Amino acid sequence: MAVSASAVAQVPVSGGDYFVVQQSQGVPHVSLGGTVVPYKEVTLSAQLPGRVKFLAGIEGDAFKDSDLLVELDESELRAKRQAAMAQLANADVQLRNAGVQYNRELWSPKTKSSMGGMGVPNLFDQMFTSPMEDMMGERDRDVERGADIYSSQTRVQSARNTIVRVQSEIRAIDAKLRDAKSLAPFSGVIMKKFIEVGDTVQPGQPLLKFADVEYLQIVVDVPGRLRPGLSEGMMLRAELDIGDQEIPVRVAQIFPMADAQRHTVTIKFDLPQGVSAPGMYAKVMVPDFNAPARSNPVTPSSAIRYNGSLPGVYVLGDEGKHQLRLIRVGEQLPGGYTTVLSGLKAGERVVRNPGVGISAGWTSPSR
């Protein structure tokens, strides 16, 4: 609700500093509670089973991008990788041997090699038996040579496939070795840790909650009827739970879909740097353009004094005496002013900054 210029008029009266109560008119605002959250927040989870070997720190410790946060014991993976490297070396030897045998078959076919044995029977076999088999169609040396070459090629290809398979296994093991280490995805702090050194974890188990707390936002569930009055980049006022501090906030993101059960729209508001901490409660003043404009008296926030939980102001009476008036406060306005829902009316004069020595009795609220 905007404060008119006349609402801050000050009338000096002898014996104190007084403020003339005026009416303020503007768009009604609705106070909506929300939670301060980090701009970026992630939960790091285990990607493979194992025992926690290293934990970088505790809640609140800050780390830079790509710093090591958690490391699992990787002894078993190292052993598997060493075994796979041995298999790769074996496969390489088999590939070289298969290549040599293939070249031998090309240049010195087995089908032309003579069988070992006695000299005369072997000579008789080469000069008479083998040629007669070829002539009678009982044996085809070209087909046999083709089969031998194909068999040699198969052994070469099998050795190559073995190398590819073992290399794939090594890459899979290397990926698991990388998964055994959880690195900081960005510069931030540890918000919460779920494990300790020595714990055994399973895939999917949360390890750490990590967040960037340099930039903070307020997340508020806004009723659907208030959504049309908001747009990205719009500046509003918010009140933090720390010392009732009032700060400006900016509409950063409006979710495109409303909650189907509560019929609210989630909206994020950017906070100035260094004014709050994640998890704190905050209230955002959202304009309600659907409600009729209200006119309420305005008084300086410094004029309000609390007797326990009851707010009141010192009103200057007709006889020049101070009267302690019980009021009902409304929303806080920019410039250090507060609207009054009941207890004051326009034209009355209140003490702007009542001192410690001022005293008076309670009076009935004016209507």
UniProtKB/TrEMBL annotation:
Pfam families: BSH_RND (PF25917). Gene3D superfamilies: 2.40.30.170, 2.40.420.20, 2.40.50.100, Helix hairpin bin (1.10.287.470). GO terms for molecular function: efflux transmembrane transporter activity. InterPro entries: MdtA-like_BSH, RND_pump_MFP. One of its GO terms (cellular component) is efflux pump complex. Residues 41-206 form the Multidrug resistance protein MdtA-like barrel-sandwich hybrid domain. Belongs to the membrane fusion protein (MFP) (TC 8.A.1) family. PANTHER family: MULTIDRUG RESISTANCE PROTEIN MDTA, RESISTANCE-NODULATION-CELL DIVISION (RND) EFFLUX MEMBRANE FUSION PROTEIN-RELATED. This is Efflux RND transporter periplasmic adaptor subunit. It comes from endosymbiont of Lamellibrachia luymesi.
